[in-house]
Fold each of these.
Amino acid sequence: MSDREAELAANLAAVEERIARACRAAGRRREEVTLIVVTKTYPAEDVRILSGLGVREVAENRDQEAGPKASACADLPLSWHFVGQLQTNKARSVVGYADVVQSVDRPKLVTALSREAVRAERAVDCLIQVALDADEDKRGERGGVGAGGIEELASLIASAEGLRLAGLMTVAPLTGPYAGRQQAAFERLMEFSTHMRAAHPAANMVSAGMSADLEQAVAAGATHVRVGTAVLGVRPRLG
Ligand SMILES: *Cc1c(COP(=O)(O)O)cnc(C)c1O
């Protein structure tokens, strides 16, 4: 085992233990929570090691980086999640490798993703990114739609060819009423999810929680946590 492999294995085990403990504390079964490892800024070799260690879901936030990395790892049994802010002109590229786009936050993006999914004959799962720091009908600083925009986007995605409405995603806000209150933020996301599932019962993914706040996400009911730093190490630069 290489040093890097040993390091990633130890980090993964520690994250796994955190998730397991958070599930026990919340009275949830471990299988209710899926770990997505966020591999942004780290090389394809690390993705390959992670795959060998049993990781099945990985996430990236920039198309320029994700495209080549996904190609280099095309032989691995991985699901790729796109979690970054996405311009419509990148939709074609992203649809080429992403199984799940977690950052759908505006109608134009739904149109672009649908067109490219149809063209590529791919089915793409979409999560609506909710901005808990945005006004009802605005978009957030770091992407995401305000609460008032969820329903419209949900209907658009649900009726878009090539796309499947899979659920909701959020990033704990740094500003606004939920700043520093991760669990309250994630509980709010769960309320939106419950409401949305009344109309779209299959859209049951709730993606919340990162390295610093995965416990709060599990406690609130998240089905997916997105963990980068705690598995791969501190990123050399913001990404
Ligand atoms: C980078 C990133 C993560 C992972 O963050 P860590 O703090 O490194 O665990 C999760 N979600 C999104 C959207 C990200 O961009």
Amino acid sequence: MSERRFDTNCVQAGYTPGTGDPQVLPIVQNTTYRYYNAADVAALFDLDSDMFMYSRIGHPDEDALEKKLTALEGGAAAVAASSGMAAIFLTISTLCKAGDHILASPSIYGGTFNLFNMTLKRFGIDVTFIDQNSSLEEIVAAARPETRLLFGETIANPALHVLDFEKFSAAAKEIGVPLVIDNTLASPFLCRPIEHGADIVIHATTKWADGQATSMGGVIIDSGKFDWKKDNKYPEITEPDESYHGLNFYEKFGPAAFAMKVRVCALRDFGSCIAPMNSWLTFQGLQHLHVRMRRHSDNALALAKFLENHPKIDWVYYPGLEGNENYELAQKYLPKGAGGVISFAVKGGRAAGEKLLENLKLASVVVHVGDIHTCVLHPASTTHRQLSEEDQLAAGIDPGLIRASVGLEDIEDIKEDFDQALNAID
Ligand SMILES: *Cc1c(COP(=O)(O)O)cnc(C)c1O
């Protein structure tokens, strides 16, 4: 059969019932697995068997979720994790050791920025932030011999900058490191980073993949395309692994070498595994990702246009709006829509913004994006409050900025709610 299309994979990839099997993916609420003899167990520990060993490093619902996400992103293999942050840390701890270096766009999620800017330093991993408007030469010049990855977000949360994939993937190639992309805000429906040169794709599945704010989760998708051997920078992947009797991941697992390394070493050692129930709920959510993302994007664009013309609004930022500084990049990399998040500032700055949040009735104030409900947040006083004002500005966060994650309610009701809330500010 020819390769199936994206929308079909949303519904069907990852689980194919045999005759008489449940039509819906079963929940296997289980930690451990039964074998007939010691030889079966030995094969598991030699990584010669594809049976499950222990639910910390994989279980049936996680496996189905990973297969669906591998199909949706067009990768070679995937590993799920307990949260988006866990997926990011598992990736970094697999690629970097003390003394290594990361090159990253500063337009990233606040949690990731804290990890990069503070926590990783305690582990001896240094991070340089390189402005996304830098030239290819400037990005390459910021690399060091110890650089091990280049990191960015397809649509930055909450700055909403769209990554220039052409420039970043060219830079990663020249430096000789994988391009690692957090694709949470776009989802594979709006953008498939591997098609634009990404080597590793990460999601906080907590957001649009789940889509209903029920489950924490993360995933790492390995494109299978990066040549780990080329400059001998990744001995953990290309040299014998002592903890598996000298097994060589690069030789044994080929295009899935990185994903396997993450699973049987990083997940084994750090233990940030996703629960069966959360895997199952996320799997359910992904079955209608294609329907939801289209509507999220349409509603976000309509609300952005409405607010742009509202007398109480200072400015609106949405890469899908004509005239936005990222409009061309959005047209190029997000042709089906620019995602569900918009940001804007109310006239009157921070105080007026806080008043707006109080006045909204349909939209709820939450520390989350990607839900079917319309949600709003004031990043400067919440998600990004640990950052200095200077770092906030570098991450694209104005003190008066409001972030809205536009949900799937009727757009007329959403517009009316913002209209009444704005008009009630004096
Ligand atoms: C939420 C988010 C994360 C972190 O995910 P958690 O599941 O909350 O740990 C990482 N990156 C982006 C872009 C996010 O929006």
